[in-house]
Amino acid sequence: MFNKDISIEELIEKFPGAIPILNKYGVKCFICGEPTWGTVEEAAKEKGMSDEKIEEVMRELNDAFSQK
Fold this sequence. Notes:
Largest sheet: 2 strands, antiparallel
Mean pLDDT: 88
Oligomer: single chain
C-alpha cells in the first residue's frame, strides 16, 4: 500500500487513523497543529529507530489500512 518514503503529511491526510499508530512508536505527526515535514522513515530515524523497527511500524500501518 505505502512504504517508509511516504510523507507524514500525505499519510495522515489519507489515513487520519495512522496518527495513533505513529504516536505509539513516538513518531510525532503534528507540531503546533501542522503536519510534520519529512517521511515516516526520516521521523523514525530521528527517534533512533532501527530499520527493523521502521519495518514493524510500516507493517502495522499497512495491516491497519489495507483494502480487505
